[in-house]
Amino acid sequence: MERRALRVLLIEDEPIDVLIVRRCLRRPSPCDSSFDLSHAPTLQAGLDRLGKGDADVVVLDLHLPDSDGLDTLRRVRDMDAHVPIVVFTAAGDETLALASLRAGAQDHLVKGELPSLPLLRRTIRHAIERQRIAGHAADCGFGRFGKEPQP
Length: 151
Fold this sequence. Notes:
Elements (H helix, E strand, L loop, with lengths): L5 E6 L3 H12 L8 E6 L2 H9 L5 E4 L2 E2 L2 E2 L1 H10 L5 E5 L4 H9 L4 E4 L6 H23 L12
């Protein structure tokens, strides 16, 4: 049985980073899902694309021409509360990484850690699975990270 390609929306304004991601996801791997990459160079273009409902995961740069910082992540989360988000930034700032996770991202990648085919692919797959598990836990009456809701 053939698996459906995972639809990745990359919201990124730097052409070199788009090229790196495209190359990492284009390389065939016999034991991995294939990826269908779409690209938006601004947050607004990304939100428009996300509004069509055709993304399984968003790879998001926090520093875009029309938005900067965690507000970028919050705006994507406001548009679609359920899409998995992988933050993809040049900054290796651990504080920013934790803040982005608290704001709703499933993972955080530093651009300098690419090109790494296994890292990017694994991060995308894990982000999708984390979001699926979180959604299932919420459907079963559990809060975020499996904690029972407070009365």
